[in-house]
Design goal:
Elements lengths: L4 H21 L2 H21 L7 H21 L2 H25 L10
Protein name: Transmembrane protein 14 homolog
Family: Belongs to the TMEM14 family.
Subcellular location: Membrane
């Protein structure tokens, strides 16, 4: 499996967003959330870059961020930063579902065995 460049860029974008939130508004929760989610996504990208990819951490984190930032985008109507992170999260979610289906197929029913 090649390196998960999209996952690493996604993680860096989320972490940078937290840093920008802190720099702009001195928001410590924004800094903590951005760095925490960025670290989780970075580790998830590392897991996806292994010979046998393991997309579940990045998939779960992307799902959570898509929901959270989608709700914030809906409330505020502002594309930056919530809308951008929501769209990136949905793209990462789709990518990870495809990886999950390719490498970790769902167990099939064994009727009659």
């Amino acid at each position: 499996m090649p390196v998960d460049w999209f996952g690493y860029v996604y993680a860096a974008t989320v972490a940078a967003g937290g840093i920008m939130g802190y720099a702009k508004a001195a928001s410590i929760p924004s800094l903590a959330a951005g760095l925490s989610f960025g670290a989780l996504l970075g580790y998830g990208a590392h897991l996806n870059s292994q010979e046998q990819p393991r997309p579940l951490l990045q998939l779960g984190t992307s799902l959570f961020l898509a929901g959270l930032m989608g709700a914030r985008w809906n409330r505020s109507g502002k594309l930056m930063p919530a809308g951008v992170v929501c769209m990136l999260s949905i793209a990462a979610l789709v990518k990870n579902v495809m990886t999950y289906n390719r490498y970790l197929p769902l167990p099939t029913s064994t009727k009659g065995s």
